[in-house]
Specification:
- The protein is an alpha+beta fold.
- It has one domain: 3-Layer(aba) Sandwich (Aminopeptidase), CATH 3.40.630.30.
- Helices cover about 30% and strands about 20% of the residues.
- It has ten helices and eight strands.
- Strands 1-2-3-5-6-8-7-4 form an eight-stranded mixed beta sheet, with helices on both faces.
- Strand 7 and strand 8 form a beta hairpin.
- The termini are close together.
- About 40% of the residues are buried.
């Protein structure tokens, strides 16, 4: 049984007809293996409702599809870090997820992605600077003169498992509509549902940090700096950015506040909470 067999959009948004066509709602496939089921089940339904009201139907997608949307929208979206490119990294549906939001006309409106990374006994700084964070085989995939330099102090102490979140993009005509806030909360929730507790990190450019994006994406910690030179992000130049991260307890508080601000549907909660990977 899938959630989609019993779970559909509320009546207020069902008339938008976003359940038609080839784009299957993420609600049909979401599984809660970890994390607080009550909070996550309510989060998923509320996020789906909020996005549908904005005319967006969100689906799980392959990483190849994500790369395709990135390339098709190069005028408004710079190339992604290769950590999400299955042709050069080890990302796959078993260790990550990608999501694409579609309009009723089948146009890509927004994206987000995340993956779990096990640093083992190494550190984030070492793995980033060796390029092993980005490539399965750095020797074969790195560009000429490509290098990464990390001076953010916390990167030198981060070890074990962490979630790298990113690939967050939405079309310019949808900006200012609150899409980013809903999408980022949903991505954090999907991460909680798939993997045991781990901090969430990302790298973010100076411009986006200066525009206040970390707060909107729920990253309370910002440390400088992360420098990417001749990487796919800026092939002929240098990317200056920061290390952002959020701990699990902080993110759970963010999600709890979000779901508590809305109306609770206990009937739907029961369906989602009972779902496991074996159902």
């Amino acid at each position: 049984m899938t959630i989609g067999d019993k779970l559909s959009a509320p009546a207020s948004v069902r008339s938008m007809s976003l359940d038609r066509g080839v784009h299957r709602s993420f609600l049909s496939d979401v599984v809660i293996d970890y994390g607080p089921r009550e909070i996550l089940s309510r989060l998923f339904l509320k996020a789906d409702t909020e996005l549908r009201k904005k005319g967006i139907r969100l689906t799980f997608a392959s990483f190849d599809e994500l790369v395709g949307v990135n390339k098709a929208n190069s005028s408004t979206w710079a190339p992604m870090v290769p950590v999400f490119d299955p042709k050069v990294s080890d990302v796959h549906e078993g260790n990550g997820f990608a999501m694409i939001g579609w309009s009723e006309r089948g146009e890509a409106i927004c994206t987000t992605a995340a993956r779990i990374i096990d640093l083992g006994g190494s550190t984030l700084k070492v793995e980033a600077e060796s390029l092993r964070l980005f490539y399965s085989d750095p020797g074969a995939s790195r560009r000429p003169e490509e290098r990464v330099h990390v001076t953010a102090p916390t990167a030198a102490t981060m070890m074990g498992s962490l979630v790298y979140g990113g690939a967050t993009w939405y079309r310019p005509d949808y900006r200012g509509r609150g899409v980013m806030g809903v999408l980022s909360k949903l991505a954090r929730g999907i991460g909680f549902s798939r993997w045991e507790a781990a901090p969430v990190i990302t790298f973010m450019s100076q411009g986006l940090v200066g525009a206040g994006v970390p707060a909107r994406c729920h990253f309370p910690n910002v440390e400088w700096a992360v420098t990417l030179t001749h990487t796919p992000v800026i092939p002929s130049g240098t990317y200056e950015g920061a290390l952002l991260w959020a701990e699990e307890d902080y993110l759970l508080d963010v999600l709890r506040t979000f779901v508590d601000a809305g109306t609770r549907d206990t009937k739907v909660d029961q369906v989602v909470q009972k779902r496991t990977a074996n159902q």
